[in-house]
Design goal:
Length: about 650
């Protein structure tokens, strides 16, 4: 069968690029100069005849460009998400007897491409659906994207930029450090397309597959989406694989894709069903969130069946005892898992768990192992009547209709050990060398009963030196670390006290509100505390209750006699980051540590949290292509990921 001209262009481009790579990079010849020149001339002739030139064609050399930042641009029409279903029956009902196009829902980065006078004029990411980033220079390096096409008018289309699994694995093989390897192709692709240096994009072997034609002036598509796909293919665009479906063959074609995805080299997380009748689909309008002309079919979560072997009860410093399911190891989303939190008594009882039960497990958001269903439901797991650590009675408490198990022994070693561990942790007093195991030994020997005792460990020097794991050097390092912690800040102290519901962010927020005045903090009532934005009654009640306890205040006074608190100098002009929320991850260049950068942000009135949410202003990460959980979440929520340099330029040095 003779190849079409466009297919021959693709074949020649691949052959010639392979020959060039072998000759220039690998010092070997796979074809003679005569043969290369002959094929090259054929390629140029075909490109001239068809008007199609691929981005990686040897007849063009795309100059790599670097920019200081990616410009933003508003889309002509909002790019809405699609409604989703996991039900085949719902897809049949949605079809309403109309013919439709069933295609892959590729898992990459959506790009809007504009061509004018046969040339690629602009490429813009989806962004938040309203405003995207201009990535034209990077798009010019996509391996299979035409830079020139035969159609002379303005053409606008949408496509998905992806990195194939095979290319992704090759890129990872070249990274020796396991921790630095990329986690999945989607995030690598997203970071690659949004690079400030197009040379990096080119190295990542990004490809694009068109999935929708937005505009092509003067072309009659006879009201058919399928004809639009055919037109795009004629212009040289690779198009997502699709099948024309009706009610009669829809389920059969879904099965075709379902079987094919097992070995499919292009990342996909489902299918898209679109009415072929353009006018009918557009005439349906849209909801507040979704267009009605298309619907996404999502593959069900990857489930694995296994056997429950044990329920482990884990005590915390607050007294809460969490149930954790231990089961026979299974492979989920590429990793081996054998345990999952059951969270509380209500969920445990709802699942009716019993040792030996057959359960199904999955990863929520492809990250956190969870129990999906208990197939046996023997309901035979007993609720411990005593704490697994201290052996004292437990108590089931109900808050907002959720039942949880607590140890009611105030002197429970688990509470004491974990409280001291928190106090010595990096975000609190930051005492290096005080692991949980070491603290447990110190508590057992009576060296420490309250926080102030940590500053008098010299009294037990000889005994400590006799302990396993300690020598003169390690002992001195520990004492020096504890001495350094004497100079600290009020937010670190408040967090270190372990007051219920007072995390790092809340401690800093309270200190800022009360101008770092500890006396005002100690005497604040619930009403005053509750009025602070972000606090609420639960946090206010816990904080006020702690400060009303005479024993707590006495221990705090003794601790204050051992430390000195740094009080930041604050003025309105310095609060340039007030109202903004940041997340910091990865290694830094300008700051010695992430903690140092966090403190800089907070000095300027900003807020630093540990996880990305819809309220996050931006995620600071020097590796924008990282596939860490934070980067994945940022991409999902359309939160900007900025480098340290971009943060310094756009946020830290801006006017208040």
């Amino acid at each position: 069968m003779q190849l079409s001209k466009t297919d021959r262009i693709r074949e020649l481009t691949q052959l010639l690029n392979e020959a060039s790579r072998a000759y220039y990079a690998e010092d070997r010849e796979i074809m003679s100069n005569y043969e290369y020149d002959k094929l090259y001339d054929e390629l140029v002739t075909l490109e001239r005849e068809t008007g199609m030139v691929l981005a990686n064609s040897p007849s063009v050399r795309v100059g790599y460009e670097s920019v200081d930042e990616l410009p933003k641009e508003r889309h002509e029409a909002p790019m809405l998400s699609l409604g989703k279903t996991k039900s085949r029956e719902e897809l049949l009902e949605w079809l309403q007897g109309k013919p439709a196009i069933l295609s892959w829902k590729l898992d990459g980065l959506t790009i809007v491409l504009t061509y004018r006078e046969g040339k690629l004029a602009k490429a813009v990411t989806r962004g938040n659906g309203e405003i995207g980033e201009v990535v034209t220079n990077n798009a010019r390096t996509f391996q299979n994207l035409p830079l020139r096409i035969s159609y002379p008018g303005e053409l606008v289309l949408r496509g998905e930029a992806v990195i194939r699994y095979s290319d992704f694995e090759k890129i990872n093989r070249e990274i020796p450090d396991t921790e630095e390897k990329y986690k999945n192709p989607r995030n690598l692709c997203s970071g690659s397309v949004r690079q400030l240096n197009s040379e990096i994009t080119a190295r990542r072997k990004v490809q694009l597959f068109a999935f929708a034609l937005v505009k092509a002036e003067g072309v009659d598509f006879q009201n058919s989406r399928e004809r639009q796909f055919a037109f795009l293919r004629e212009q040289g665009f690779p198009v997502v694989e699709y099948r024309r479906v009706t009610e009669e063959n829809l389920l059969e074609e879904i099965s075709y894709f379902e079987h094919k995805i097992e070995g499919y080299d292009i990342p996909s997380d489902g299918l898209v069903l679109t009415y072929d009748d353009i006018a009918y689909g557009e005439g349906l309008g849209r909801t507040a969130k979704f267009p009605r002309h298309s619907i996404a079919f999502k593959w069900a979560d990857e489930l694995r069946e296994t056997s429950l072997r044990e329920i482990e009860w884990s005590a915390s410093r607050t007294g809460l005892i969490n149930p954790v399911a231990i089961f026979d190891p299974v492979e989920l989303e590429g990793t081996t898992v054998s345990r999952a939190s059951v969270h509380n008594i209500s969920i445990l009882r709802g699942l009716k768990l019993g040792i030996g039960d057959r359960i199904t497990v999955y990863k929520a958001n492809m990250i956190i192992p969870q129990i999906a269903e208990n197939l046996t439901r023997s309901d035979s797991v007993p609720i411990p009547e005593v704490c697994p650590v201290c052996g004292q009675p437990t108590q089931i408490r109900q808050v907002n209709e959720v039942q949880s198990l607590y140890c009611v022994n105030e002197k429970c070693p688990a509470k004491r050990i974990k409280s001291f561990t928190l106090f010595a942790s990096r975000d609190a007093l930051n005492m290096d060398g005080l692991s949980e195991a070491t603290l447990e030994k110190f508590i057992d020997r009576g060296f420490i009963r309250e926080y102030a005792d940590l500053y008098h460990l010299e009294a037990h020097r000889e005994e400590i030196l006799q302990m396993e794991g300690f020598g003169e050097r390690s002992y001195q390092n520990l004492i020096e670390s504890i001495d350094r912690s004497r100079h600290t800040t009020l937010p670190r102290l408040l967090y270190g006290l372990g007051i219920a519901n007072i995390g790092v962010a809340n401690a800093k927020m309270l200190c800022r509100y009360f101008d770092y005045d500890l006396e005002r903090l100690k005497t604040a009532d619930i009403e005053t505390l509750s009025a602070i934005e972000g606090v609420g009654e639960v946090i206010a009640a816990a904080f006020a209750a702690y400060m009303r306890e005479e024993d707590n205040l006495a221990r705090l006074e003794r601790l204050l006699g051992e430390i000195d608190l740094e009080v930041p100098q604050m003025d309105a002009d310095s609060q340039t980051l007030a109202g903004l929320t940041f997340v910091v991850t990865g290694s830094l260049n300008h700051y010695g540590s992430r903690s140092e950068l966090k403190e800089e942000i907070e000095r300027r009135g900003g807020k630093v949290t540990g996880s990305v949410t819809g309220k996050t202003t931006c995620l600071i990460n020097n590796d924008s292509a990282s596939t860490s959980a934070k980067n994945r979440k940022a991409r999902e929520l359309q939160v900007p990921v900025v480098t340290e340099e971009e943060f310094l330029r756009e946020y830290l040095h801006r006017e208040p």
